[in-house]
Every structure is written in structure tokens, then in C-alpha cells.
Specification:
The protein has 121 residues and is mainly alpha-helical. It folds into two domains: 72 residues, Arc Repressor Mutant, subunit A, CATH 1.10.10.10; 31 residues, no CATH class. It contains five helices and two strands; from the N terminus they run H-H-H-H-E-E-H. The protein has a two-stranded antiparallel ribbon with strand order 1-2. Helix 2 crosses helix 3 and helix 2 packs across helix 4. The longest helix is centred in the first third of the chain and has 17 residues. 15% of the residues are buried.
Length: 121
């Protein structure tokens, strides 16, 4: 649920896009080339053409990768685009809520520790 809400407000980058960007960046660094192809990305990820194409399209559409090839039907020449934002937590996870309301220390419903006073019944 948290992932769906975060994705809906675009506060997180999907894991497959992050992984694809990391591979592109690593390949660029390791090879010293100006760009990499989808085939090279697929080989590194050990994925077939379809899933790689989807990942690359998502990353390009979001601006995280750029395709330097402007001729239709030619192999993509991929480079890094915009920096990815850090993942933001829109909704707290269940464990954090449990800790806040039922964890250590006596906390009331608003989440504040009762300063020496017994909790209201």
C-alpha cells in the first residue's frame, strides 16, 4: 500500500528503474564509452529484450536516462539523465506505527510520551 501511494505521488523511483540506471552508470564507467545499448544493459541484467525495453522506456520517460539516438529503428544509445530523488516516505510503515503507539515508554493516542502521568483510561 505504501509503495502504491508513494508511486502515485511520484516520491519514489521504481526499483527496476533504479537498477537499470545503476547498470547504465556502471557500464559507462567500466567501458569508458559515451553511451551503452539496451543489449548491453540486458546482458548485464540477464534479461530478455522485452523487459529491458520496458525498463529503459520507463527510465527515459521519467528523464533518468537519455537516448542519444534520434533515428527511428536504430539501437538506443543510452546515457544518464536527471539525478534520481531519494525515496521519500509518504506514509509510515506498520512497524513504525506500532513502535510509536505501543512501543517503549508510555504513549498516548497522539503519540506523545506521558510525562509521569498515567495514561487516560
Amino acid at each position: 500500500m505504501v509503495e502504491l501511494v508513494s508511486a502515485g505521488v511520484e516520491s519514489t523511483v521504481p526499483a527496476i528503474v533504479r537498477e537499470t540506471m545503476e547498470v547504465v552508470g556502471r557500464l559507462l564507467d567500466e567501458t569508458g564509452k559515451e553511451s551503452v545499448t539496451s543489449r548491453e544493459v540486458g546482458e548485464e541484467l540477464e534479461l530478455e529484450r522485452g523487459p529491458v525495453s520496458r525498463r529503459v522506456r520507463l527510465a527515459v520517460d521519467a528523464g533518468y536516462l537519455k537516448n542519444l539516438e534520434d533515428r527511428k529503428g536504430r539501437a538506443a544509445r543510452l546515457v544518464l539523465g536527471d539525478d534520481m530523488p531519494e525515496d521519500l516516505e509518504i506514509l509510515p510503515n506498520v512497524e513504525d506505527l506500532k513502535e510509536r503507539f505501543f512501543g517503549t515508554g508510555e504513549r498516548n493516542v497522539s503519540g506523545f510520551v506521558n510525562a509521569g502521568r498515567p495514561a487516560a483510561a
